[in-house]
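Chapter review: from sequence to fold.
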Amino acid sequence: MKDYKKGDVVKARITRIEKYGAFAAIDEKYSGLIHVSEITDRYVKEITDFVDVGDVINVKILDFSERSNALKLSAKEVNGDLYKNKKRKIKETVFGFYLLKAALPSWIKKKMEEINKKS
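The token string follows.
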């Protein structure tokens, strides 16, 4: 691999994300995997908390395969903390607030009965 060598720091564009890591393209010829253990030193529950498809980040080339032009990459060695601190969106159910709306009258009735007993 004459274009790059182990230890080089290059820009990479994230092209795909899997549970075990993120795939990144260096250029038209070379791409590689940033294993989940090479994303950060933090615990990684969701890789998308750190990188998303389309992000361009610096990576260090750890190793490569001459045969397949596949690179083994590290993001944690050259970037600061990539954590995006995204707030998780609440997933709504198909029922949404309808269940609460349906239960509310009985809750109010029950509470009113408790209040009236104490009076």
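Two observations follow directly from the output. The longest helix spans residues 98-118. Residues 39 and 101 are 44 Å apart (CA to CA).
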